[in-house]
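Query form — protein CCDC34 domain-containing protein

QUESTION: What is the three-dimensional structure of this chain?
INPUT:
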Amino acid sequence: MDEHIGNHAQEKATNDIRQTLPRNYLEVSRLQKNSLMVTSQGNQSSVSISGSISSSTLKSKEEKSLDHTSSQVRNKHTPWEQWIFKKASERFRASLKSVQQQSFEDAKKQREQEEISEKMQKGKLKFKEWIERKNLEAAQRKKMAEIALIEKNAEETRKKALQIKSEERYQEWLNKKRKTDQTRRQKRETELSRRELAARQKELQANTCFKNWLRNRKGLNKRIPQSYCISNGTFETYFDRTSAPSPGFFNKTNWVS
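ANSWER: The structure tokens for CCDC34 domain-containing protein are given below.
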């Protein structure tokens, strides 16, 4: 009999709680939804603030609702029903706390996932920019290498052409110098030959003249004495080298005074 009364009281209290709680539970669900929307749209600081505000708002509304319901239960029901209502309220608070904790964790996970996704997007963007920059640098290096190779080939071609031209000019100068040296040497040899021939001719002519003079000299009279003296009372002539020679030419024309 007592068990039947207790079950009846518990069932009645549960019905009263069910009539009272749905309005509060819907309010809590609406506030949780608003909290999740704010959490997903805001940054980390605004999410934390909105989460704390939503939690405090939910808690205050829940406590007010439950306190109001408790005051109604105390006024209308027996202590047993009040105990049943208290236990149901505690279970509801625990369930609501669990829901809030789960909502907070879900929001936190969602925020972390969004941060990870944002970091991945930024990383992909940076990697793409890095790849584009590296490709551009590689293209520029390749282009510069090609330009450097072209300039190097042009410089080598210019140097080869300059070297060939220099060798041609040197060969031309060398040939000209050889011709000049040969001409100078021929002139010197010709002049030397002419001088030698002239010297030989002069020497031959001198020898001829000397021989002719010597041959003609043999037919001339010897030099007669030029000095006179008296020796032992006799008038004599003698050759004196210091005396003036006798005239070699006699003008046969008489002197005209």
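ADDITIONAL NOTE: The longest helix spans residues 79-217.
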